[in-house]
Every structure is written in structure tokens, then in C-alpha cells.
Design a protein that fits this description.
- This protein is of the alpha+beta class.
- The protein folds into three domains: about 5-260; about 275-650, Glycosyltransferase; about 655-745, no CATH class.
- The strands form eleven sheets. An eight-stranded antiparallel sheet has the order 5-6-7-8-15-12-11-10. A five-stranded antiparallel sheet has the order 1-2-3-4-9.
- Helix 10 runs antiparallel to helix 11.
- The longest helix has 20 residues, at about 390-410.
């Protein structure tokens, strides 16, 4: 938006912005207090009935962040700031006392953090509040500021606005509202932060959700004498402007990482995924609600005693059990039994792996292809094939031709659904953003890279390159479904490794930026959400109201490959965010299982045709909601039952001759036996983050003393210890030495 455009009558502005424009263009005078953050100067000014932090760079103009707002007279004082804070301000007005604490400086990047609380003197109903961030142009006029908003909060995901100034050229900024800190406010007022952070240039930032006031019976005032946080705003800035979408994404990850490091992170709990996997395998084998027979083979129900067998579902379970067998050192019979029926999904006429068996009911359109459903079973087939399974290799390779024809027909830009026979489109785009399945090219590229590794045929490598290049320009809109976006990032990283072309490494940041833009980087205590963790969960689709277990563990698997293929050139913020996502997934995913939730937190009814919830079965619910709705409204997801095997085989490590398993909530990049009772491990998480390593007693063994030392010789103290487990909190990046006493029978 140019300055001339801003003066046109059709530019949307509110009376609040017009009033702010009038106030800002007057002489602001000397600030009440000031501080600095890198190249940015920050002054606090009282303007009418608000306290504003004015952020200025090397150029004219700046940013105005509202720190407090009141009605009527007010008295402002500035007590001495305690250690770690730049400033403290106190505003006393008719409604009560507002306390503002300010942190500012430079860590990874310049930052400003302003936290505002209110202790009401009366039962307080807070009315509508305008957004708290205003860009200032020439003469401090917001209507003369020109800029571009790249990303805003989606639903209940992270409370972010990511934007850049174009005139004046002040820089690139990320606004992050720490929604965790507002938990008491949401609880007291019965509100939630759905799309509370965003805006349309030049009115940006956070608008505090107002408590209901249209009927006295609905009113939920803040209690007098009880202090609640109304805002915890973090502003990250850098004076340079990104040059293209890849640089835009990289800077977003850097800034998001800088904001993340300022947060007080929630803790995680140890969960026994090995025991959960064993229970799941037992239930898959014995529960009549889990499987059904067709054509003499055994197939998995997608939901508890519901829905038709499905190729994606079958291969998801086969692959997970296959990995479990590798981890155990012996194949599990269910993997062989379930894979035996996969050939019945193959459509010999079209040369494709169909979604349904030939005898699917008339209530399904057997000719309809959901774009990502075509490629996901191929991805898991490819993984089994790459482990040397000849039957999986044959089925994988003979199914590729149709998938390539579909990619060419749609020019690597897939619709939501199409007809298998002639590729005619059934549903072109999603209602949320008017686009098709924008990230299918990423999973397609991964499948092509699997084919390239199996055959060494360059045509498959060329296909992968073409699919990734076709997604250029989508930016933050690339995410359709979280796990597909994660596989797209992994495909870019693999392409970088194969071709040595930096553009693919940089393009991986576009996928990652879109993925983390859709993550819930806050901890909800709203309603039933107080019974589980949602921190760093990613909503299943770009418009989904819930987090889903399948997208959770499939993204975890994709990121394992991404980090494995990466190296020292990887952007450190990207490495940290991925490692932290995977760390919290191991904790968060436990609460998808109905036996881990109170009965009242699970929905009584499920979506039509999606069966029912049986708390006795170790199968996860599909859906968890940050706004506190009951979980499992969609159904109990047998096709997500592989989660337990995936987490167990990545997070638990068998040590020959040792009386324990080693649990680590980060991926282990290197492991070397240093002696009969010692082991060297290398982790590659965030440099300032922590990891949990546990010595977990094996059955019929006795766990005695264990120790972890850093390379310099410093010995770490256990965080907790029992007869069954010894826990250590360790640096998430670097080398560790583990030592223990020899095994004895219990």
C-alpha cells in the first residue's frame, strides 16, 4: 500500500486508527522512559488514554506497540526494574492497577518484550480493544506507512504477525503474542484466542478477546484483587528486508526461533511407548473391532469397527509394524499378514494402487482419487522396499507410472479430488483458501526420490525436482496438510544432498515456515484442554480446528529424515524448531489415547460412519482441540495406531548386554560403544535447549547406578530416580558419555 493509496477513501481504516494517526502526528515530546534493542531505539510515551512503546530504527517512522490502555484519568509511575528487566511501569486508573514489565536487547536478534497485567479494583468487564501494533510512516503517520503482511495467526495456532516495511525501509518484523501467559484471562472470561492476532495493514497485532456482555447472565468479569496478564507481546526485528520467498521463510524461522527462546517452556513427561506399542499390537491382532477379512486376507478398519479397508491405512500400519520388527530384531507376523492383502488394491487396468478394494460398497465412489491418498501408500511401500522387501519393490515400481501421469496431467498442481479414469476434477480447491492440495508435490517428490534410490534412474530425480520447483511462489500458503508439508521439507533437503544445489536447502525453509506458522506454540488450559498438552501441536489441515495424531507422528518421521540429511549448513533456528517439535510430540501424542484422558474429556458421539470410542483399546483418537472441546469427535483412529511403534522405535534405544533401554526425546545422531558399560551419544537439537535421557529398566533386570558426563568431564546430576528409571536433563546439542553398572538379575 503506497502513501497515496492510504489516503483514498476505500482503504479500510477504523476510527481507532484515525484517532491514533492524529495523536502520533503531533509532537510526542520526550519519552517517559527509554531503552534499546540492537539498532532499534524504544521510547515509552503517554498518548491520550494509552501508553505506547515507539520503536525506531535508522530511518524515519517506526512501530508503535500499545503497552496499556485505560479510560479517564491515570497516574503513571516507574518503579526500579529488577534484574533481567529493562523497565517497569505502573498505571493506576479507575479500573485498577496495570503493571508493565519490559525486556529488551539482542540475543539472536533484537527483541522487545512487553508484558502487561491488570489487577482490577472492581469486578471488571473489559470491552472491545483495538489491535495493539501500528506501523508509522513519514511524519509518524500510520497512513503513510507502506508494507506487506506475510502471515497472521490461523485459528488457534501461534499468535503471530509477520510483516515487513517497504516505506520507510525500517526492516522485517515478527510480532508474537505468548498466549500461554493469558491462560488465567481466558479461564476467567470464558474466551479463547481464536484469530486474536492478525489484522490488515496498517492495523496489526493482538486484540484481547472481550468477555461476553450482551446478557447479564453471560457476563464473566475479572475478579477484583486478582491479577491477570492481558498481553505478553514479543517483537523481533531485523533491519534488512528479505529478497525472495525463500529468504522470507528463512528470516521467519530465525525470528520465530528468537521468540521461542524467550518463552518459559512447558515441561514434558516420560511415557512408555514400548509398552503402548505392545498393547497396540495385541489389540490389532485380537480385537474384532480392529480388522476385517476380504479375499482371504486380513485388513485394518480405519476407525473402530467402521469404514472400508483402505490402501493408505493398510500401508501405514504395515510400515509401522515393519519398523517395530527391525527394532526388535525379528519380524512381527502381523506385518507379513497385513501386507499379504496389499496386491488386491492394485488396479491392473489403470496400473495404479487404488484406495479401496474391488468390492467396496456403493456408498463410496471407487473412482474418486483424493490427491494425497494416491501417493502416501506408495511412500510407505517405498520405505519397506528400500529395506529389501522384493514384493514391496515390485508393487511400488509398477504403481509409479500412474502417479507420474497424474502429476504431468495436473502440471504438479493437484486438485482436492479427481476421477481416476480421465483425471476429470471432482473438487478443485478447498474453501478455506481457494487452492488445491498445495503440498502434494512435496510427498510426490519424496516418492520419486525413493524410486531414484531403488533404481538409480535419473528420470525419477527429474520428477522430484520438477514437483518442488512447481511449488515456488506459494510461500506461507504451501501447507495443505501438515504431514505432507513436512515430507516436502524432507524432499527438499534430500534433493540438496543429491544435487548440491543450495536452492533446495533454501526451499525447504518455505515448507518449514508454513508448517510452523500452523503450529500451536502455546499451552492451553481452556476447558478439557487442561487434561492434555497441545504445545507445538500442528493443526491437521490449513483450516482444521484440531490437531490429529496421524499428522503428528508422520511429520515426526519426515523430520527424522530431514535432520538426518542435514548438516552444519542448516539454519540453526530450523534445527531447533524441528527438534523441539519432535520432543513435544513424544509427550503430546500420549494424550490422543482415550485411556490417558478423563471420561468426560472424550466425546460421547463420533462422526457418522466413524464407529465409536472404546477406552479399552490402545488406539488413538483422531482429534484434540486447543479450545477445550471434547476429544475424539471425529473417531478412534486405528489407522493412526502405528504412532506407538513409530515413537517407540525412534525414542527408545536397545543397548546389548545392558539392563535398560535408553530413552531420549531427541534424535540420536551418533552412537558408539565406548566400553562394556559405557556409550557415547551425540544429539543435534537446539543449542540452548535441553533433552531428556532416561535409563529405563528392562523386565527381569535390576537398574543400579548410571551416570552421564559432558565431554569436558562434568558429571550431571539425575533429575529424578526410581527403581525403574533414572532421568537426566542434558544439553540437546553435542556429545554425551553414558556409564552404568553391569547387569544383574532382579
Amino acid at each position: 500500500m503506497t502513501a497515496a493509496d492510504a489516503r483514498r477513501s476505500d482503504v479500510p481504516v477504523s476510527p481507532y486508527l484515525l484517532a491514533a494517526a492524529r495523536d502520533f502526528t503531533r509532537s510526542l515530546g520526550e519519552p517517559l522512559a527509554s531503552t534499546e534493542a540492537g539498532d532499534f531505539r524504544i521510547g515509552f510515551h503517554r498518548i491520550d488514554e494509552s501508553l505506547w512503546a515507539i520503536v525506531r530504527g535508522r530511518h524515519a517512522g517506526g512501530l508503535a506497540l500499545r503497552a496499556a490502555r485505560w479510560a479517564g484519568d491515570a497516574k503513571i509511575s516507574m518503579p526500579r526494574a529488577s534484574s533481567g528487566y529493562a523497565l517497569r511501569l505502573v498505571v493506576k486508573s479507575a479500573i485498577g492497577t496495570q503493571r508493565i514489565t519490559v525486556k529488551a536487547g539482542t540475543r539472536d536478534l533484537p527483541f522487545l518484550r512487553v508484558t502487561t497485567s491488570l489487577e482490577p479494583d472492581v469486578a471488571a468487564l473489559l470491552p472491545f480493544t483495538p489491535r495493539d501494533l501500528v506501523p508509522l510512516g513519514e511524519g509518524d503517520d500510520p497512513l503513510r506507512a507502506a508494507g506487506c503482511v506475510e502471515a497472521v495467526q490461523r485459528g488457534l495456532n501461534a499468535g503471530v504477525v509477520y510483516f515487513r516495511f517497504e516505506r520507510p525501509a525500517i526492516g522485517n518484523f515478527l510480532y508474537f503474542q505468548n498466549l500461554t501467559a493469558l491462560g488465567d484471562y481466558f479461564d476467567a472470561t470464558g474466551t479463547n484466542p481464536d484469530e486474536s492476532v492478525g489484522g490488515v495493514w496498517p492495523e496489526l497485532g493482538f486484540a484481547l478477546p472481550p468477555a461476553p456482555t450482551h446478557r447479564s447472565a453471560d457476563a464473566k468479569p475479572l475478579a477484583p484483587g486478582t491479577e491477570v496478564i492481558l498481553s505478553d507481546a514479543i517483537l523481533i526485528g531485523r533491519p534488512d528486508i528479505p529478497g525472495d520467498e525463500r529468504d522470507t521463510a528463512r528470516q521467519f524461522l530465525q525470528m520465530l526461533g528468537a521468540a521461542y527462546r524467550l518463552l518459559d517452556l512447558p515441561g514434558t513427561d516420560f511415557h512408555d511407548w514400548v509398552a503402548r506399542a505392545e498393547r497396540t499390537l495385541h489389540d490389532l491382532d485380537t480385537a474384532p473391532e480392529a480388522t476385517i477379512r476380504h479375499y482371504g486376507h486380513r485388513y485394518v478398519h480405519p476407525y473402530t469397527a467402521a469404514e472400508y479397508p483402505d490402501a493408505m491405512v493398510q500401508m501405514s500400519i504395515v510400515q509401522a509394524i515393519h519398523d517395530w520388527g527391525k527394532w526388535r530384531g525379528e519380524a512381527h507376523p502381523l506385518a507379513t499378514e497385513f501386507f499379504a492383502g496389499m496386491s488386491k488394491f492394485f488396479d491392473t487396468k489403470r496400473g495404479m494402487l487404488g484406495r479401496y478394494l474391488p468390492n467396496v460398497g456403493d456408498d463410496k465412489d471407487a473412482d474418486a482419487v483424493d490427491s494425497w491418498y494416491l501417493y502416501h501408500p506408495l511412500l510407505n511401500l517405498g520405505r519397506v522396499a528400500l529395506d529389501g522387501d522384493k514384493a514391496a519393490r515390485r508393487l511400488f515400481l509398477k504403481s509409479l507410472g500412474y502417479g507420474i501421469r497424474a502429476a504431468h496431467h495436473f502440471d504438479y498442481k493437484w486438485p482436492i479430488q479427481y476421477k481416476a479414469g480421465d483425471f476429470s476434477v471432482i473438487e478443485e480447491s478447498a474453501g478455506a483458501d481457494g487452492r488445491g492440495q498445495t503440498d502434494v508435490g512435496g510427498i510426490y517428490a519424496w516418492v520419486m526420490l525413493q524410486a531414484f534410490k531403488l533404481t538409480d534412474e535419473k528420470a525419477y530425480l527429474d520428477e522430484a525436482c520438477a514437483a518442488i520447483e512447481a511449488a515456488v511462489g506459494l510461500g506461507f500458503g504451501i501447507n495443505y496438510q501438515a504431514n505432507l508439508t513436512a515430507w516436502g521439507a524432507a524432499a527438499c533437503m534430500r534433493l540438496w544432498r543429491i544435487t548440491a544445489r543450495d536452492v533446495y536447502l533454501q526451499q525447504s525453509y518455505v515448507y518449514l515456515a508454513s508448517f510452523f506458522h500452523n503450529s500451536e506454540i502455546w499451552e492451553s488450559r481452556i476447558g478439557h484442554a487442561r487434561h492434555f498438552s497441545n504445545f507445538l501441536g500442528v493443526t491437521a489441515l490449513q483450516d482444521a480446528p484440531y490437531m490429529a495424531i496421524y499428522e503428528c507422528f508422520d511429520s515426526y518421521t519426515a523430520f527424522e529424515h530431514y535432520l538426518s540429511d542435514s548438516g552444519p549448513d542448516l539454519e540453526p533456528a530450523a534445527r531447533m524448531l524441528i527438534a523441539e517439535y519432535c520432543k513435544y510430540a513424544l509427550d503430546r501424542a500420549w494424550y490422543y489415547y482415550p485411556d490417558a484422558l478423563p471420561t468426560e474429556a472424550v466425546a460421547e458421539r463420533q462422526r457418522e460412519n466413524n464407529g465409536h470410542v472404546d477406552r479399552r483399546l490402545s488406539f488413538p483418537l483422531e482429534d484434540l482441540y486447543a479450545d477445550g472441546q471434547p476429544a475424539g469427535q471425529v473417531g478412534q483412529e486405528i489407522y493412526g495406531a502405528g504412532a506407538a511403534m513409530v515413537f517407540a522405535t525412534r525414542a527408545f534405544h536397545r543397548v546389548e548386554g545392558a539392563p535398560f533401554l535408553i530413552f531420549c526425546d531427541h534424535f540420536v545422531r551418533a552412537c558408539e560403544r565406548a566400553g562394556d558399560t559405557s556409550l557415547s551419544l551425540t544429539l543435534d537439537g537446539g543449542e540452548t535447549c535441553t533433552a531428556l535421557i532416561s535409563f529405563v529398566r528392562r523386565k527381569f533386570r535390576k537398574l543400579r547406578s548410571a551416570a552421564i558426563t559432558l565431554p569436558g568431564g562434568d558429571r550431571l546430576r539425575p533429575a529424578s530416580q526410581s527403581d525403574d528409571r533414572i532421568d537426566f536433563l542434558v544439553p540437546a546439542n553435542g556429545r554425551l558419555i553414558l556409564r552404568w553398572e553391569p547387569a544383574t538379575k532382579s
